[in-house]
From TrEMBL:
Keywords: ATP-binding, FAD, Fatty acid metabolism, Flavoprotein, Lipid metabolism, Nucleotide-binding, Oxidoreductase, Peroxisome. Residues 23-140 form the Acyl-coenzyme A oxidase N-terminal domain. Residues 485-661 form the Acyl-CoA oxidase C-terminal domain. It is found in: Peroxisome. Coiled coil: none annotated. GO terms for biological process: fatty acid beta-oxidation using acyl-CoA oxidase; lipid homeostasis. This is Acyl-coenzyme A oxidase. Pfam families: ACOX, ACOX_C_alpha1, Acyl-CoA_ox_N.
Length: 667
């Protein structure tokens, strides 16, 4: 019997699980990277469940902001006391899973320490600096964050205002915030928790500005935790989500740090102030590339969770009686419900598989950089920026669709949707605002288009489609015979067409206006080209992964992968119809393909989401509970409300009581 079925479970959800046409365990292992990975997940889960230190006193939604920060700090200290429970080298896998189980979606005061401070030390320090700082950071004798964004600038790093001016007479840098807009703003854990930060500041030496560079800076006294003299900092207040994190602000008043505080793996300032430039001007942006790469998996996990909650709830929720007298049906049986939820599940899969690819590419980059080879950098910058944008955007929209699909209960924090959304949607902005990142991808695509037009193209595999000739019309005859190659060919056509459309528009504009205006006037089309480029990549990656799946899993997953592709095509049919590439009847075929996929997924939907292997502890959703007993759980969850501590709350005595009494006396 499936490990997901237990006595006392809701009958509808049990029936769904009994209908599975595949082995959920095998599917889980395939999704997560093999039996060993799955085994390790279970071991980590058991460990977390058995440790009382990781328990929340009540669901975190009922805690105040201060209580959330305090609870999160308590847990993260305990969690990091016990990192021997996981493979520390596998942050992408075991590390992220462990953190997700213990910390939930509230983030915590050490988030940036692990996600950016440590990786920056690893990636940007010279050997001497690494020896000095890394052991301290790993041991947690110091806590650090990554302070780059300012009140006035987040995107345009070249205009950051914090200055680091080299003083050769003392061999120190002087950090200064010359304006209010120079205040660092947003860094996680900066407000109250960190005592160190990587500070990105404009480097001045010998009277010249050398652009933004990273420095390691002590912000607070190691014993008293009071801000150092010349440092002003605090919390920036509540946000849409992640309120367990003390995102902060920071200002410097001519604060002196030693020369060796500048991270000198790539750029250097010698004692006399001579500046040595890096091998590639963007090497200093390495940590951002790293985070963009790993956040894809995080986003996929959030969307997968939302789809799991919506699917399970849709299996136990009965509403509407199409045949009067036959009883109400499961809302999962409505095609409209499937159309709302299943594409989100398909996206979550697509994003997860792309996350594995970008992880591997990033590892290759790290290896190459150790040999001084920066060739891969532009490609990975373009891919990670593009995936980050498309994935976080679709994830945010997808979570919202899942929430809506759960009706009123989706609006309650019991559903976990508000937490999931608040947490995930930050990804649209941090690590590079999504549209800005799409425009970075566009720079890469414009170069590929230019090469193709010049006939000199020797493009990287990822944009090889740009230089292909392609067909003038789609070869789709019927949806049943629509092969993977044909699907890819059709998407390639639209992506290529949009790339050249944007490129030609840009070139034409350049003949009439200044280059920056030409870029601006073409930027909506350029961003669209980037989106198509990324969608094509996602579809290819997904179909390729499913192609290689074992037969028993492939026969289910193929419908999910095709749904992902068909949904993209049918919801942008205009692009495919343009210039008669597709005929309306071909679009109709694809729409039918969507409905067929929905019908194929329907009977196995619950087992498919079970295969993601979310424990209730990780989902933290009353609606998405494994056992499906949601109504009892909702009633129980509401008991945590502070308002339920007494039958009559003081507000009644103060306001409502006198109001009604007064009104009664006048009747
Ligand atoms: C928008 C850009 C990319 C522009 O860079 P720029 O140097 O001002 O622009 P430019 O001189 O016009 O040069 C563009 C050129 O630089 C290249 N480039 C840009 N970034 C990279 C990279 N990482 N690797 C390799 N190459 C890179 C681009 O491809 C361009 O190349 P090209 O000129 O086309 O050949 C940059 O300013 C940027 O990345 N902005 C976004 C800032 C950001 O991501 N901040 C993150 C702060 S930390 C954070 O949010 C943590 C949250 C974590 C959490 O809470 O979990
Ligand atoms: C939850 C969260 C956590 C964060 N954590 C950190 C952290 O730990 N450390 C840190 O340093 N920062 C952090 N940040 C800051 C984050 O990296 C920035 O907010 C982000 O890079 C965007 O910059 P911005 O806020 O200045 O937006 P802006 O750049 O002002 O963007 C505003 C609008 O202008 C548009 N725009 C800007 N430039 C262009 C352009 N060139 N072309 C076209 N349109 C443009 C954008 O698309 C957007 O629509 C965090 C932010 C959030 C929300």
């Amino acid at each position: 019997m499936s490990r997901w079925i237990q006595n006392g479970d809701n009958v509808d959800i049990t029936k769904e699980r009994k209908n599975a046409t595949f082995n959920t365990e095998r599917m889980s292992a395939w999704i997560h990277g093999g039996d060993e990975v799955l085994k390790r997940r279970r071991e980590i889960l058991d460990y977390v469940k058995s440790n009382p230190d990781f328990k929340d006193p009540i669901p975190v939604e009922f805690l105040s902001r201060e209580e959330r920060v305090s609870n999160g700090t308590r847990k993260i200290v305990k969690m990091t006391d016990n990192t021997d429970q996981i493979d520390g080298a596998d942050f992408f896998g075991e590390g992220m899973y462990f953190q997700s189980l213990v910390m939930g979606r509230d983030l915590h005061p050490l988030s940036l320490h692990y996600i950016m401070f440590l990786p920056t030390l690893q990636g940007q320090t010279d050997d001497e600096q690494l020896d000095e700082w890394l052991p301290k950071a790993i041991a947690r004798s110091i806590v650090g964050t990554y302070a780059q964004t300012e009140l006035g600038h987040g995107t345009n790093l070249s205009k950051l205002e914090t200055t680091a001016t080299y003083d050769p007479s003392t061999q120190e840098f002087v950090l200064h915030s010359p304006t209010i807009t120079a205040a660092k703003w947003w860094p996680g854990g900066l407000g109250k928790s960190s005592n160190h930060a990587i500070v990105v500041a404009q480097l001045y030496t010998k009277g010249q500005c050398k652009g933004p560079h990273p420095f390691i800076v002590q912000l607070r006294d190691l014993e008293t935790h009071k801000p150092m003299k010349g440092v002003r900092l605090g919390d920036i207040g509540p946000k849409l989500g992640i309120n367990g994190s003390d995102n902060g602000f920071l200002l410097f008043d001519k604060y002196r740090i030693p020369r060796k505080a500048m991270l000198m793996r790539y750029s250097k300032v010698q004692p006399d102030g001579t500046y040595i430039a890096p091998a590639h001007s963007k090497l200093g942006y390495g940590t951002m590339v790293f985070v963009r790469s790993i956040m894809i998996k995080d986003q996929a996990t959030q969307l997968g969770a939302a789809a799991t909650i919506a699917t399970r709830y849709s299996a136990v929720r009965r509403q509407g009686e199409p045949v009067v007298g036959n009883g109400e049906i499961q809302i999962l049986d409505y095609q409209t419900q499937q159309y709302r939820v299943f594409p989100q599940l398909a996206r979550a899969f697509a994003f997860l598989f792309a996350a594995y690819e970008i992880r591997d590419l990033y590892l290759r980059l790290t290896e190459e950089l150790t040999h001084g080879n920066t060739e891969l950098l532009p490609e990975i910058h373009a891919l990670s920026s593009g995936l980050k944008s498309v994935v976080s955007w679709d994830t945010a929209q997808g979570i919202e669709q899942c929430r809506l699909s759960c009706g009123g209960h989706g609006y309650s924090q019991a559903s976990a949707f508000p937490e999931i959304y608040g947490y995930a949607v930050g990804g649209c902005t941090y690590e590079g605002e999504n549209l800005v990142m799409l425009l970075q991808v566009a720079r890469y695509l414009v170069k590929a288009a230019e090469e193709t037009r010049k006939g000199t193209s020797n493009l990287a595999e990822i944009c090889g489609y740009i230089s292909k000739t392609g067909r003038r019309t789609s070869s789709l005859t019927s949806i049943a015979n629509y092969t993977t190659d044909q699907i890819i060919e059709d998407l390639e056509h639209v992506a290529r067409k949009q790339v050249f459309h944007a490129y030609d528009k840009l070139k034409k504009a350049q003949q009439h206006v200044k280059p920056e205006d030409a870029w601006n006037q073409s930027s909506v089309e350029l961003a669209k080209a980037s989106r198509w480029h990324v969608r094509l990549y996602l579809v290819k990656t997904f179909l390729k992964k499913v192609d290689k799946a074992p037969e028993d899993l492939k026969k289910v997953m193929i419908h999910v992968a095709r749904l992902y592709a068909f949904d993209i095509i049918s919801s942008s049919s205009g692009n495919f119809l343009e210039e008669g590439y597709m005929r309306p009847d071909q679009i109709t075929e694809i729409k039918e393909g969507v409905y067929e996929c929905l019908a194929k997924i329907r009977p196995v939907a619950v087992s498919l989401v079970d295969s993601w292997d979310y424990d209730d502890l990780e989902l933290k959703s009353v609606l998405g509970k494994r056992d499906g007993n949601v109504y009892e759980a909702l009633l129980q969850w509401a008991q945590n409300s502070q308002l339920n501590k007494s039958d009559v709350i003081p507000t009644f005595e103060k306001y409502l009581g006198p109001m009604m009494k007064d009104a009664r006396s006048k009747l």
